[in-house]
Amino acid sequence: MNTLIVYGTRYGATTATSEEIAKVLQGEGFEVKVVNAKKEKVKDISPYEIVIIGSGLQMGKWTGEVEDFVKRFHKELTHKKVAVFISSMKTVPEHEGKTEEVTKIRSLGLDDKIAKHGLKPFDVAVFGGVLDFNKMNIITRRVLGSVKTRIEKDGFKQTQPGVYELRDWEEIRAWAKELATKARQ
User: Fold this and answer.
1) Which of 85, 98, 172, 180 has the greatest count of CB atoms below 10 A from its CB?
2) Three-state SS across the chain?
3) In sequence order, what are the residues at sequence separation of 6 or more whose Cβ sits closer than 8 angstroms to the Cβ of residue 87?
4) What confidence tier does 149 reach under pLDDT thresholds 50, 70, 90?
5) d(C-alpha 23, C-alpha 120), whole Å
6) Cα–Cα distance measured from residue 13 to residue 129, given in angstroms and rounded to the nearest whole number
7) Res. 72 pLDDT band, cuts 50 70 90
8) Stretch 110-137: mean pLDDT
9) Which domains does the chain have, with CATH numbers?
10) What mean pLDDT is reported for the chain?
11) Distance from C-alpha of 54 to C-alpha of 18, rounded to nearest angstrom
12) pTM of the prediction?
């Protein structure tokens, strides 16, 4: 099946997540094109049977490029198999057993956006992301300063100074495999 993964990222986490999803789908026999919406403007989605939309989430917002893509292809997306995922900080409250906070992340970052754009995805996912304090502007760094302490307290380690990996790669791979199965139905 011809598949397009179009994503937006602020700090790079959604890039690696999109590439991993593509790798799994390719292993399942899918033809996959991965597009960073910030670097490449998609002109036509007609060749694709499946469109996977991914975005990093910051303060409950998708990247502008992904929002623009969805607005531009709104009509065409109603005739495609669509899946949606976000990269977020959900791993932190999940690790702490704060299910209400995880639900809020899903609601703001996924459910509300899907409803806003009238999407009808056949599958959705909320993944952890990467917090890279080195790439954040000073305002974001200040807002997330308390989160840094919380992350360290929860046992998340820096992969390099100022960078915290919050992704569960097995969760991402499992979702991609399940996505392949559902797409064939």
Assistant:
1) 85
2) CEEEEEEECCCCHHHHHHHHHHHHHHHCCCEEEEEECCCCCCCCCCCCCEEEEEEECECCECCHHHHHHHHHCHHHHCCCEEEEEEEECCHHHHHCCCHHHHHHHHHHHHHHHHHHHCCCCCEEEEEECEEECCCCCHHHHHHCHHHHHHHHHCCCCEEECCEEECCCHHHHHHHHHHHHHHHHC
3) 9, 13, 14, 17, 54, 55, 56, 57, 127, 128, 129, 130, 167
4) confident
5) 24
6) 5
7) very high
8) 94
9) 2-129+167-184 (3.40.50.360)
10) 94
11) 7
12) 0.93
Nearest to 16 by CA among 117, 119, 121, 159: 159
CA 65 to CA 8: how far, in whole Å? 6
Distance CA 114, CA 170 (A): 25
Spell out the residues 6+ positions from residue 91 whose beta carbon is closer than 8 angstroms to its own: 128, 156, 166, 167, 168
173: Cβ contacts below 8 Å, ≥ 6 apart: 20, 24
- Amino acid letter at 25? L
Structure tokens at 101: 């906070």
